[in-house]
């Protein structure tokens, strides 16, 4: 049975988002444009309507196909680390529900996003169209390889836990570009690489997070 999902956004939702933004400020998020995106994007519409009550809690949540929509704090934190400017060309690995994608779009980035789960890829593509969210490209494929045909990028954001940093992603950054990637298996250290030159990267680490795994397609 197909359920027609209502795309309603109400004052009550808006109020819950304002509260969520306040909570994120108390947890250390400072970027005004990131907080504005949290206040604007109807996160409840990215989840199954029966879980709507959870949408504005600062929690990750199941979105089907064994995957999760990232916790709002994590989305805000990763987005802040990207230091986005309007028009930046950004590659996202792990489209999932599309919430992080919508956040990048709200900050006026040009977004390329890759998802390896066919079911989610299809579902989220339809949702983007319904909502008039317009990433430049939504790709079904393996994010480990990045997107060489569109490289280099101002920023690359990985929204699944990577056992190690894929070399392809490092090589697809512009000089001055930023790679934000949670690295580790059981839990992950949020890691920022800034490309300083063709061969040099600065690395910064930002504490522990928990993501679903970045899976590699071996074939
Ligand atoms: N950004 C998403 C987070 C989804 S969870 C959101 O805001 O909802 C991480 C996603 O990464 C999952 O959808 C998972 O299927 C996807 N993923 C895992 N390994 C991947 C890979 N190698 N390439 C592309 N996507 C991958």
Report on this model:
The structure is a single chain. The chain has 219 residues and is of the alpha/beta class. It has six helices and nine strands; from the N terminus they run ααββαβαβαββαβββ. It has a domain at 70-209: Rossmann fold, CATH 3.40.50.150. Helices cover 29% and strands 26% of the residues. Strand 7 (173-183) and strand 8 (188-195) form a beta hairpin. Residues 67-70, 93-94, 96-97, 99-100, 114-117, 120, 142-144, 159-160, 212, 214-216 line the site of S-adenosyl-L-homocysteine (SAH).
Q: What tags apply to this protein structure?
A:
219 residues; alpha/beta; Rossmann fold; seven-stranded mixed beta sheet; two-stranded antiparallel sheet; binds S-adenosyl-L-homocysteine
